[in-house]
Amino acid sequence: MLLPGALLIGVSGLISGRLYDRFGVSRVTQGGFLLILIMAVALALTLSTETSFNLLVIMYALLMFGVGAVMAPITAYAMASIPNTMVAHASPMTITLRSLSGSIGGALLVTIMTSTASASSLSFPLDMLKGVHIAFWTLTALAGLGLYLSFHLQEARKLKPANI
After folding, report:
1. Long-range CB contacts (within 8 A, 24+) of 104-109
2. Of 20, 74, 78, which Cα lies nearest the Cα of 86?
3. Cβ atoms of residues 90 and 79 within 8 Å
4. Residues 66, 149, 45, CA angle at the centre, nearest 5°?
């Protein structure tokens, strides 16, 4: 179930990188956040105990495509906005922060899901389904915040190559 999403993150990184070169950071990240927002809402509304496996795979893969479409341009934007002398330090820091924030975000959504499920008076699996819905609504809110913030991105200034 996770493999198609992982593959689409890589594919969307390539596509969004080219789109970033052509249109800039704002449009590409807005499209990525919009796709994440749409897929999170779709998952929150359509997920049930009878949802087909194939539909879940497709929806998750599209969600991951949106994540990849955001990550590549944001990373390029961040790297282009720092001085060339700091790139050697900024690159590993960016990778570390991306891994750390992904882990914290996943843990936060799982915590929301399980705490909602344990506080529910419904029986299993309906209590867990309620928790999953709340987690996807939380993801929807975060994607909406990201979409809002993407409208405030300014194009990075062009830096001169470092003298080596």
Report:
1. 105/142, 108/138, 109/135, 109/138, 109/139
2. 78
3. yes
4. 50
Q: Which domains does the chain have, with CATH numbers?
A: 3-150 (1.20.1250.20)
106 — phi, psi (to 5°)?
A: -65, -45
Residue ranges in the chain modelled with pLDDT below 50: 159-160, 162-164
For residue 163, what pLDDT is reported?
47
Q: How many Cα neighbours within 13 Å face the side chain of 140? A: 14
Structure tokens at 126: 């309906």
Question: Who contacts 154 (Cβ-Cβ below 8 Å, separation ≥6)?
Answer: none
Distance CA 62, CA 105 (A): 19
CA distances from 26 to 4, 16, 50 (A): 26, 11, 38
